[in-house]
Amino acid sequence: MIKILGIESSCDDTSAAVTCGRTLLSNVIASQKVHEKYGGVIPELASRVHQQNIIPVVDAALRESGVEKSDLDAIAYTRGPGLMGSLLVGVSFAKGLAASTGIPLIEVNHLQGHVLSHFLEDVNTPASSPALPFLCLLVSGGHTQIIVVKDYLDFEIIGETIDDAAGEAFDKCAKVMGLPYPGGPVIDSLAKAGNPRAFVFAKPRAPELNYSFSGLKTSFLYFLQKQIADNPSFIAENKADLCASLQETIISILMSQLIKAAKITGITDVAIAGGVSANSGLGERLRNEGRKYGWNVFIPQRKFTTDNAAMIAITGYFKYQQSLFSALDAVPLARM
To answer: In the CATH hierarchy, which fold is given to the domain comprising 3-126+305-321?
Structure first.
């Protein structure tokens, strides 16, 4: 069986994983808490912490998997997109390891990894995978896309944000309310106790199957400024309702275009991926729409929604089968 070491360092999580075929043997993640007090990821700090974490994380992943370096068939690494300083650490380590061992390299697009995480087989939590072709709504802090996955390595983007990503809208609006970073999970938690119809915010329209979230952020900011002018305690007194209404608005925007895409393509296997796919409200809405429209719905395990090397390794597995190897002179790309 093909054994792949995956390395992920695109943002602020240092991760390494080992797969055997599609089966996940280990997935080690070192998160960085240092950014919380700044309300967002500081690129220079992130790259420095990656340098501290990369060796122990890879060592732990290999030990947990029971796989020796000499048994690896390839090293898959995130080439981009992401923060350049963070990517440099992972790419440099992968290239150094490959050069010293003679193990071939495989470059991976981070976003492709999120989508292909649906094909990971976890011995502890078996999960079914979507049939090809399938629709995937990729939602993260930096990207929002509707993708037709025709084959494991054949993607067609049929819709994407024309400005901000959905995850960015969650985090920026959370920051305006004075909530801790990252704001998305905090909003999701508070929304459970709120009324999703308490307040109405703008739902910007984008052409075709695309998205727009900048207008929503502006609408939310102006609304709060007006309310606080009349009542300085407005946010504290209405925090749960604000979070529930904001989350409802973002989910409605996401789902309206996804429903349209499913009707246009006729595809009934529908999945979500990326950090925002962990949002409980989005998962519930997708299941409800799935029952309404007869979709087969696929939601990744929570541990595969955030940045992780397991998704890099499984993508490396599919690329290994097609001998899509990377040269040692490949450089990281902040945008891909």
So the answer is: Nucleotidyltransferase; domain 5 (3.30.420)
